[in-house]
Amino acid sequence: MKKASLALVTALMISVPLYAAIDIYEFDSPEQEAMFHQLGKELRCPKCQNNNIADSNAALAQDLRMKVYEMLKQGKSEKEIIDYMVARYGNFVTYNPPMTFSTAILWVGPFGFLIIGFAVLVIRSRRKNTVAAEQSSLSDAEQKRLDALLNDKDSENDKADNR
Predict the structure, then answer these.
(1) CA 10 to chain centroid
(2) How many angstroms separate the CA atoms of 84 and 68, rounded?
(3) DSSP state of 20
(4) Which of 28, 65, 93, 101 could make an S-S bridge to 89, C-beta 3.0–4.6 Å?
């Protein structure tokens, strides 16, 4: 019994470090290694959302790192690797997506709404002022009647003051 439990504990202690294995890549030149590390930081993991493939532990990120390594070993350029990843996973895989119609809407849309809202406010306030000015303008007959009423009221006030 003791030997079996000792064997189980030993097996567990040996197998735990295997889960923390570090990927080791051999490069032909220091430039390839530098490009690998740069691409690892530029490409986003599609599964982890906000981690790059160098920092992510997801299986998909490991596959992407391996694909980048293989493509570098084949002599592909940085642009070719990024184009391959974008073709396969979309613009989301890059941290600096190109300017397209869909990304332009995201950047310009809020400013467009502000401009449209301000224009609506200005037009409504001007319309309210013109409607108020039109309502305050009286015809000649109405103006004469108003003057007569004001004169009558002024004469009544003068009589009241003299008493």
Answers:
(1) 51
(2) 10
(3) T
(4) 93
Query: Can you read off the two tokens belonging to residue 52?
Result: 């790059």
Token pair for residue 158?
Answer: 């003068």
Distance of alpha carbon 154 from alpha carbon 141, whole angstroms? 20
pTM above 0.70, yes or no: no
d(CA 111, CA 109): 5
Q: What is the pLDDT of residues 8-65, one digit of tens each?
A: 777 667 765 555 556 677 888 899 889 999 999 999 988 887 888 988 888 898 999 9
**Closest by alpha carbon to 83, among 95, 70, 94?**
94
Backbone φ and ψ for 84, nearest 5 degrees, come out as: -60, -45
Q: What is the DSSP letter of 92?
A: G
